[in-house]
Amino acid sequence: MINVAILGYGTVGSGVYEVIKTNNAIINKKAGQEVNIKYVLDLRDFPGDPVEDVLVHDYDTILNDDEVEVIAEVMGGVEPAYTFVKSALMKGKSVCTSNKELVAKHGPELIEIAREHGRNFFFEASCGGGIPIIRPLIECITADDVQEIVGILNGTTNYILTKMSREGLAFDTVLKEAQDLGYAERNPAADIEGFDACRKIAILASVVYGKNVDFEDVYTEGITKITDVDFKYANKIGYSVKLFGKAMKTDGKIYAYVAPVMINQEHPLFAVNDVFNGIMVKGNVLGDVMFYGSGAGKLPTASAVVSDMVDAIKHLNDNVLIDWSSDKLELTDIKNSEKKFFVRMSGDADEQKAAVEKAFGSVEIIRLDDVSGEFAFITDSMTEGKYEEAAKAFENIITRIRIEM
Ligand code: HSE
Predict the structure, then answer these.
(1) In the predicted model, what is the mean pLDDT of residues 137-147?
(2) What lines the ligand 1 site, CB under 6 Å?
(3) How many domains does the chain have?
(4) Is the pLDDT of residue 276 over 90?
(5) Quick one: which of 57, 201, 260, 390 is 20 to 30 A from 207 by CA?
(6) Which member of 38, 163, 200, 340 is catalytic?
(7) Is 136 part of a structural domain of the chain?
(8) Is residue 139 in some structural domain?
(9) With 0-12 CB in 10 A as exposed, 13-18 as middle and 19+ as buried, what is 136?
């Protein structure tokens, strides 16, 4: 038998407890021994809940119990999670976490402490909810020079964008639904301003490229400026609007960004809707490989945490090498990256087309029957820097959305 503890009995923590209880026989078999939840830590009481039998309020009870070998940290936030996780690893316990804020900020240090103690720090659930992506990157895609990793990495915003596109619903209504379903972060800005996806692409890029991508270096734009009119244009031309997190190698340099993009049906991530996440990895010898599944929610996320716990039990005294050093990966400016742009402009298309084409080259004009006083166009492929230079000549640009091919 192996004793484990869960730090936090919120959405994910109660999910971890439920998954271990519900799939007990399968999990024990996969782990090779009986998994016993010895403690659950939370400041709150849960009268009438079976967790009461193992609930503790003092972290030291868990830290100082040498019988606890594996800990699931599912509290979220950097502190006290960082202090708890670091002290657990230093005591020679393995830790599995869903906490992307913790991993993005302290990942390399915690990986190193685990290595020094011959234990493991796993973080599968920090990216892509229930989708296995970290382990495939660490253990499977190891023969490739990865050219690109791109994904829809936030379930809440994908849920919002899908509902806005299909049902024409207002932003706030859909955000409330996502919160009620347990997808959203406590502070909704983390989802809708792109900060959550930014941490996830920083984690993924660090695991892929082996050096630390500081999430604060990642260019980040959220979805709050996307409107129903953008969707009218997108629907008319057969595009969808998605929040992408992307890291890409060009000429030996790596750039990363999070931003809303328009994609058409040819793009492998076009059909990733609702709370689902999709992640595509492009290897120089492998080609494209796709990962798809529930990107948020109690049980899918808990499933990933428990899978990590099973792996930690299987490798109890054997550190699994994670190639993510604390050396900083210097990102190149996204101004050097090349793409097409969808641009909405106020005024009359016929009057402005010549000036637009002088600045942006030949463009494809799009008009909406039920929206007057404006038009849109799609540019040819150009660098972000060139786009910005050309756009300076126009004060009547309403919005621009990047197009990914
Ligand atoms: N708020 C996050 C999301 C939860 O919507 O994707 C999963 O990380």
Answers:
(1) 98
(2) 129, 154-156, 183-185, 191, 196, 295-296
(3) 3
(4) yes
(5) 260
(6) 200
(7) no
(8) no
(9) middle
